[in-house]
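> forwarded from #structure-qc
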């Protein structure tokens, strides 16, 4: 595999996980595989994913922990309920397109309890791809990126905070604007949101990758929870509380303050203006 292809896969992994990722090609007979880990951890001190050929149209993926992962496992044990929920949702999203098994645990309620934790997946391509590199890229997109993103969330890779949000600790319905901003900026939330809702704007329908090609990774995440209507906070659900918006629509919904327009309200404005 060309180094350029490995770099592209590493970039896609970094974008989805919010962490720098190392990728190495594996020679597994006539077909290639991949070994993937977090760049700031060596292969023995954290989660490692391996992708190997499985039959003519399938890849097998395994994710486990290196033999010296005690420090990372301790960090994972401190993950918040919200972090755990997002990690589980990311793994569940893999089960929509791949066979997945977590030995001794369910896909819905798993926990990383020790270094023996493993996730096994099998991804079958619907057709024979003309180039092996394309099949590897597809398996990474559908399986490895969300699995590694789940691990990144549990480990606690930082989300860049909006300084202005941290200066406005106003709470309504038990949810601060800083919390909303953090959720919207979390790359793992963005990844899950796009996997569930699709890579197009939930208001205007823009598909930026179709329009801009490789420069089309511009969709943003918007927090749907109508916090101004809540008398009491409720559990956050990353599968239902987020929607992808293009930058223009995202900025437009936030023109109303302190709490933004709903996507339905913005769509109604667009229809009135003759742009729906």
């Amino acid at each position: 595999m060309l180094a350029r292809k490995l770099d592209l896969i590493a970039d896609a992994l970094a974008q989805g996980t919010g962490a720098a990722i190392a990728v190495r090609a594996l020679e597994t007979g006539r077909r290639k595989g991949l070994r993937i880990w977090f760049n700031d951890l060596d292969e023995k001190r954290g989660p490692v994913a391996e992708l190997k050929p499985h039959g003519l149209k399938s890849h097998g993926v395994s994710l486990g922990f290196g033999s010296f992962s005690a420090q990372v496992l301790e960090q994972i044990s401190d993950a918040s309920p919200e972090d755990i929920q997002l990690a589980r949702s990311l793994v569940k999203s893999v089960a929509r397109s791949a066979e997945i098994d977590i030995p001794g645990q369910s896909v819905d309620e798993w926990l990383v309890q020790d270094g023996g934790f493993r996730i096994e997946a099998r991804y079958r391509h619907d057709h024979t791809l003309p180039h092996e590199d394309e099949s590897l890229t597809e398996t990474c997109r559908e399986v490895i990126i969300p699995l590694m993103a789940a691990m990144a969330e549990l480990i606690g890779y930082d989300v860049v905070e909006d300084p202005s949000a941290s200066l406005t600790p106003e709470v309504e319905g038990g949810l601060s604007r800083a919390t909303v901003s953090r959720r919207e900026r979390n790359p793992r939330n963005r990844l899950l949101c796009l996997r569930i809702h699709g890579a197009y704007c939930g208001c205007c329908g823009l598909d930026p990758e179709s329009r801009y090609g490789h420069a089309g990774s511009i969709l943003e995440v918007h927090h749907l929870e109508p916090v101004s209507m809540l008398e009491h906070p409720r559990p956050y659900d990353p599968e239902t509380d987020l929607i992808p918006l293009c930058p223009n629509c995202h900025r437009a919904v936030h023109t109303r303050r302190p709490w933004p327009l709903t996507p339905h309200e913005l769509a109604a404005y667009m229809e009135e203006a003759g742009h729906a």
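QC bot note: Residues 132-155 form the longest helix (24 residues). The longest strand covers residues 21-28.
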